[in-house]
Design a protein that fits this description.
Radius of gyration: 13 Å
Helix content: under 10%
Number of helices: 1
Distance between the termini: 26 Å
Largest sheet: 6 strands, mixed
Strand order of the largest sheet: 5-2-1-4-3-6
Number of strands: 6
Shape: globular
């Protein structure tokens, strides 16, 4: 049985191709329920970025070496509004 954790991986939105998400996956703690494919606002050292959830329930032992550096995602955004209308609408937690 899969253990639920509050650790996820995300891929950031591509700077040059908006609404596409690729490249390296980054791990975060998450304070809201998310599923793979959801869009979230991820804090980075260069400010907040839109990112797509690529993995959920990551085991703690898989990220032990980076655990002290993980940031917290608190906001999920409405994927349809963003992809269709470029509007960033936070969803209530």
């Amino acid at each position: 049985m899969e253990t639920k954790t509050n650790i996820i991986s995300v891929k950031y939105e591509d700077k040059f191709e908006p609404k596409t998400f690729s490249g390296k996956a980054y791990s975060y703690y998450v304070a809201t329920d998310v599923e793979v494919g959801d869009l979230v606002i991820a804090p980075t050292s260069n400010g907040d970025k839109i990112a797509r959830v690529s993995e959920i329930n990551i085991p703690e032992d898989k990220i032990d070496f980076i655990k002290p550096y993980l940031k917290l995602i608190t906001d999920k955004i409405n994927k349809e509004e963003y992809l269709q209308n470029n509007q960033i609408m936070k969803e209530a937690a």
